[in-house]
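ingest -> validate -> predict -> emit
validate: passed (alphabet ok, no gaps, 549 aa)
predict: started
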Amino acid sequence: MFCEQCEQTASGDGCHQFGACGKSPQVNAVQDLLVYCLRGLSAIALQAKAHGIDTHSVDVFTCESLFATMTNVNFNASRFDKYIKQAIVHREALKQQLQAVASVENWPAIAQYQPDFDESLVEQGEEVALKFISQVGEDAVDVFSLKLTVLYGIKGAASYTFHASEVGQEDEEVYHFVHRALNALNDPSLTLQDWVNLALEVGKSNLRSMELLDAGHTRTYGDPVPTSVPLNPIPGKAILVSGHDIRQLEAILKQTAGTDINVYTHGELLPAHGYPKLKQTYPHLYGHYGTAWQNQTKDFNKFPGAIVVTTNCLMPTHDDYHDKLFSIGPVGYPHLTYLPAEDNGIPDFTPVIEKARSLPGFTESAPPKSVKVGFAHNAVLSVADTIIDAVKQGKIRHFFLVGGCDGAKPGRSYYTEFVEKVPEDCIVLTLACGKFRFFDRDLGEIEGLPRLMDVGQCNDAYSAIQIALALANAFEMDVNEIPLSMVLSWYEQKAVAVLLTLLHLGIKDIRLGPTLPAFISPNVFKLLSEKYQLQPITTPDRDLAACLG
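emit:
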């Protein structure tokens, strides 16, 4: 196998025997085969769009199935068999429609590829993966590096696009770009500069996807407001919902309304408590349990109720809690109970409810403890005058955005130490699961403003961007001139998409860690360093001194 799409790649340069995430070579191979088939499907989808043929079902399918190939989403090879068959069915159906309206017959070779479902899909996946890895030319290494950057970035962007579609927000231009990026992977004539340009276009398209998702969430559930979230469980039956999918969280809340079951969030669903309509409508959305995804083995084992995983990041499951764990959407693991969606995109969560009732739930109260969420762009910008005055008076010296992905590899204690050492006249904005390194710290206040503000999920990087752009506008400065430093951690492909968005916006001096992506070649990183001053983290003291210098 060959995989270097996440931060935890073996020895920092790729997984070749078995995935550090727990992914087997067999699953890796069928994922590669699915991506290959999607590239052929996209070639046809682009032609279909050009002839006015409706491709909506293909667009959504492409985003969902790309989502399934991301790190820690789906470990079930049989689910990928079904995705591959669906991709071929979609492709052939579009071909028939094209032939009817345009008499198209000369299809690209990749769009004629036919997997042999009677033979090993693993071997076929390994074969197409080798073709993708093989590169020729003077810039072969750097071109391949950028091709991977585009592929991984579009996976992350597709996941946000899929979530946006769930809450009724779609843009044909975004779907068109997903297909164009996948089809570009079929073009051997693209130059190094072409790939640089395409990577930045991924960032541009991802910004739109995050904007759509933000609009879907806020129009449906209201603009997030600062909200205290209990971290202490209370007696009663319980369901834990993990992942990122707020629509599916609401579906679980709706189906458990009027029962004796309390619903807790886990991982990146913590910010859901900040949406006022969600909280007001469902009082049994009680609190948050556990921390980041890499601690789920401990968290899931101890949780005395049923558990639903809605998106990444799923770790290989343990027998200790296997029977109380359910997956939905693109998520899967062998022998794990999967709840398929009905026509409205929502599963029947009755098995989850029955499991929760059969388990003891929490039997004792715990000492009160809470954290505050809900500092999205509207909440922060509603006090913009206070922030601007505090900056002008010297009471706020600097802003730090410290967030991104958490993970299990050593080196992530850097982010905890960094936040703890941030001077008292500075404010820390945070988002995504990287915040769990320090989310419960009390950093105090400046002029009534919390020094630690939780902006939201990883997709709420859109909120952080809007805050930065609004501050730049208020101070009549370029965004790179305001007193803001970004110190980011990355793990999987959503983070790649967000980083490309920041580069598309021309944001400079980003510090990235705990290690640099293995798929970024030295020459490509040199290019990014020279143009955007992208740099690896060093030590908290050195980086703080540089940011405040």
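The first strand starts at residue 227 and ends at 230.
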